[in-house]
């Protein structure tokens, strides 16, 4: 029987495998497009732009996300039970106490944000507090704390930077190519024409491929957070029951946005999840049924 430890280690290994593939993918794309264009100078510009764009989101994303969700901070006197639960789990996890927020949403859901463990936030909806019992709520909070402890916000920022680099490289290549900025193909012969044709196809498909890798990494981190939460609470069934309740609730999340959906423990879009493999391929979360099945099969 698979244990919590094996599930955690497997998902860490798969994440690093995907990241390694992503780096190789970007290096290969950069080489191909620079060869097709006959000029690699624009690649450095693309990398610089992507890093500057991501710098702002890394430092201020938590404030933006909380504002979009309509989340309000609470103190211990506002909800002593929730506050003590978070305190106990952070002590067990060896993490600093994050700021705690509540959103006035009927849909049961939760998310974590912040640039590192010292500037972290855990937010839960009103519906989550109303629907879940204590072991289930512990499972959800442990899942969100696991994202913080596993440095998932930093990892996602790094992945967003890589996706941004791919998008900007592809866009600049297409713009320069169609505006006649490439080196004369007559100087490079048939090989130059072949490389240029491959470059056009790669520039069109690369952003889609990069997004698919990003989503695959996001799904692996959800599995890892589930396993880490089960290890923290020593009770996988609590999180499994919570996921069942959350996913079966059809209440819409009024503040749901595509840009923040990946942060939630379960997709905030209700009634929009199809069961096809294609939909799952472009989903930020693994299928709930698969997550519950794995949790229930875990041995502590």
Structural account:
The protein is mainly alpha-helical and 300 residues long. It has one domain (4-297). It is 66% helix and 6% strand. It is built from ten helices and four strands; from the N terminus they run ααβαβββααααααα. It has a four-stranded mixed sheet, with helices on both faces. A hairpin with a 7-residue loop joins strand 3 and strand 4 (121-125). The radius of gyration is 22 Å and the shape is elongated. 38% of the residues are buried. The model has no long low-confidence stretch (mean pLDDT 81).
Helices and strands in order, then pairings?
Elements: H1 4-37, H2 41-69, E1 71-73, H3 80-93, E2 99-103, E3 110-113, E4 121-125, H4 126-131, H5 134-149, H6 152-178, H7 189-233, H8 236-248, H9 277-281, H10 288-297
Parallel strand pairs: 2-4
Antiparallel strand pairs: 1-2, 3-4
Helix pairs in contact: 1-6, 1-7, 2-6, 3-5, 5-7, 5-8, 6-7, 7-8, 8-10
């Amino acid at each position: 029987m698979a244990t919590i430890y094996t599930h955690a280690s497997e998902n860490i290994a798969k994440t690093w495998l995907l990241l390694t593939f992503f780096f190789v993918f970007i290096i290969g794309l950069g080489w191909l497009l620079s060869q097709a264009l006959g000029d690699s100078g624009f690649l450095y510009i693309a990398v610089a732009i992507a890093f500057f764009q991501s710098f702002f989101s890394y430092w201020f994303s938590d404030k933006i996300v909380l504002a979009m969700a309509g989340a309000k901070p609470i103190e211990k006197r506002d909800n002593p039970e929730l506050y003590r639960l978070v305190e106990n789990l952070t002590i067990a996890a060896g993490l600093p106490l994050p700021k705690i927020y509540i959103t006035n949403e009927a849909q049961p859901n939760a998310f974590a944000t912040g640039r590192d463990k010292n500037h972290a936030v855990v937010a839960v909806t009103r519906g989550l507090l109303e629907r879940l019992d204590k072991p289930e709520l512990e499972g959800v909070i442990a899942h969100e704390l696991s994202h913080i402890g596993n440095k998932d916000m930093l990892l996602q920022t790094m992945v967003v930077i890589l996706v941004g680099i791919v998008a900007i490289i592809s866009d600049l290549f297409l713009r320069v190519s169609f505006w006649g900025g490439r080196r004369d193909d007559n100087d490079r012969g048939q090989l130059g024409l072949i490389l240029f044709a491959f470059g056009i196809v790669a520039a069109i498909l690369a952003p889609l491929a990069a997004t698919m890798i990003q989503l695959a990494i996001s799904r692996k981190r959800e599995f890892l957070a589930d396993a880490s939460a089960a290890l923290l609470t020593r009770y996988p069934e609590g999180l499994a029951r919570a996921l069942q309740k959350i996913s079966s609730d059809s209440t819409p999340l009024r503040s749901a946005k595509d840009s923040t959906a990946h942060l939630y423990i379960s997709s905030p879009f209700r009634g929009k999840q199809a069961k096809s493999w294609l939909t799952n391929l472009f989903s930020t979360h693994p299928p709930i049924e698969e997550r519950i099945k794995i949790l229930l099969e875990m041995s502590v």
